[in-house]
Amino acid sequence: MNRNTINLLLTAGAACCISITIHSLWRYSTIDTTQDSVKSEVPYCVTSPIVPQQITFAGQTIDLLRYDHRERMDRELMAFTYMHSTTMLTIKRANRYFPIIEPILKAHGIPDDFKYLAVIESSLNPQARSAAGACGMWQFMPVTGREHGLEVNANVDERYHIEKETKAACRYLKEANERFGNWLCVAAAYNAGQGRIAQQMEKQLENRAIDLWLVEETSRYMFRLLAAKAVVSQPQRYGFLLKRSQLYPPIPYTEVTTQTGIANLAQFAKKNGISYAQLKDANPWLRENSLINKSGKSYTFKIPTYEGMHYNADKIQPHDTNWVID
To answer: Model pTM?
Structure first.
């Protein structure tokens, strides 16, 4: 095959790829085709997500027509929309972790929308750790974790225990709501602390945290929460197209309980048919290679089943059908 023929084939292939890309963009875009003068010099387009006129959170309706509310929401919607890999990974993880979080919130009388607080705190990463030392999916600091019933030390850190940290978060949220009686104030207090929010509400003569002049992190925090709900609950509106087989399925476990210490967790894992890495992944609250248990406390280990450790795309079910396109 001569060089001219190869060049011709490459040119044809490139043209075909560009044609397919443009067709796909044309199909999913909402650009007004009557504006013939609008052209792009690159084979893709970036559009600003539409800000809704209002959004509800925990039964409260927030007006997004007011300029400051609208622009703050716009900023966070753009951030979630164009943090492509992080947002898509969060949606995939939600299929695994929302079924754990939702029943705990319900049992404690916490609105279901607070599952999105875990989204903005950690992107639903159960092993998340901030530079300041906040840990776990709900990002507890050591002192706050202990105050709300979690064991936190070098050997065991229950801030990484999904069920226990979620229950601790519920205790904090319920306590804050008893003080404020407004769930968005509760959300702001989760970030800035109850004392600071109460002080600023009194100082600024406001009864809603959403109307306060706060440091940027806390001011953004409430609208990040609203944007997380908007994007994660309806990802297709923001350009995230996933199939059922691409979601992360819940992992079934058996449980093993002990009231004694375990000198070697690698040996313990092998005796239970899994690797040390799999044991630590399933039980991230274990912080060392042994379990010290001088008090005789009862600890329960999750042991993933053989079937649970292997993907079967045909059996993956979406926790929310709005997440998938098939």
So the answer is: 0.86
